[in-house]
Amino acid sequence: MKSTTLGLSLLSVLYLSACQTSSPGSGLLGPRSPRDRYLKELKRTNEGLSRQWEEAGKNALDFPVSVKFPHKEQNFFPTDLPLAFGYRVTIPRGRRLEAVVSSNPADSLYRVFLELYEESGDKYKRLTFAEADSNRLAWEAPDSTTVIVHLQSEAAQTADITVSLESHPMLSFPVARRDSRNIISFWGMARDGGRRSHEGIDVAAPRGTPVVAAANGYISSVGVNNLGGNVIFQQVENGGITLYYAHLDSQMAVSGQRVSIGDTIGTVGNTGNAITTGPHLHFGIYQSFRSAIDPLPFLSLPQIDHSNSTLPDKQAGEWKRVAGKTLDIRTGPEAARDTVARLSRNTMLRVVGKAGAWYKIWLPDGKIGYAEAKSISPSLNSLRPLTVDRERPLWMLPSLDSYAVIRVPAQSTLKILGSWKTFLYVEEPTGKRGWLNNPAALPQAIMAEGN
């Protein structure tokens, strides 16, 4: 069973190191990714930091969030918290995943590493990665495939990164100056009085409109039949599918000819059994030369999220607290998603991203999920004062394995801002904040007094 190893043991890179683990993609055959090369360099210069950074990368694969196309969010990587993010997403048959990252501001100098993995039990196979000079990667899925997009910035650098996960069609549209909005008949519709169903789509266009190759490949057959009239079959390069263009007015390609996307191979007509209809292209896709499959996913318009996912500066990387009685942290930015954790009022959490109206949340036990922004207090006013009876350390994180950011003298009056388990998040008289271990009384009891 997978366990969360990143969380309370995550400490400042200047003080402690974590346990040795294998990094995502380690031991893989094939070319080394920019992330591989960076990790090798980091191990040589700072072994403790490299262990934390590598563990963060593994944790992102073990516990990814779940999202749907299209998805866009801003991520914040604090200097003091080694983080990586994993996004589990299903690429439907016939679609191409495009993952695009951008730094905020655009001229930021920190490095960003973008990789794609396929999960197999407790192991991960790296499918592809973005090159060092690129901000995107792409992956096609002739069959429905679930993958994990892995995002990580270089260590010990504050980074502000927006990631967009987009769904694009695998094929180019087969009629010039037309798109999926011009489809007039879809897969599965009844034909011949219900004796058969439509094994393709029909695209309306004026007679003579160019029919163009929807993919790179070669023409496997040019001919005539009773149903399709003038037809062309094209074998897709490295795709395992055959494309069928029917009812052509003219055929402008020959068998064996290599074609590229956009090459004109014929013109729209109404030959064959379409003689009584208006001119249109019948377009079909066959898998393994036998079974027909629905062409629509291969051709429909890209799915791109244009929403505003900008994280307010005052929220990025900051500790916040639960505003209501309880708050469910979700596996994805939707109310219907599974619950990662249920938090009580005044429990502390850290905002590390934003997707639409949802904040991405990091919890001190290492869990990452989403919460509606309106459910989190925008500011941290004092819940109640607390006077310490002796000198006490304030910790960087709610863990005794952390390090002290400051020691407060006896009789100091602290402002209680929130809690996590047996720790209180407090502010000392000079304005510095940290975590106070409170073994004598559960924070929940103190929090109840502050409500």
From TrEMBL:
The keyword Transport does not apply. InterPro entries: Cell_wall_metabolism_enzyme, Dup_hybrid_motif, M23ase_b-sheet_dom. Residues 1-18 form the signal peptide. Pfam families: Peptidase_M23. One of its GO terms (molecular function) is metalloendopeptidase activity. Keywords: Signal. Residues 197-294 form the M23ase beta-sheet core domain. It comes from the Bacteria. This is Peptidase M23. It comes from Runella slithyformis (strain ATCC 29530 / DSM 19594 / LMG 11500 / NCIMB 11436 / LSU 4).
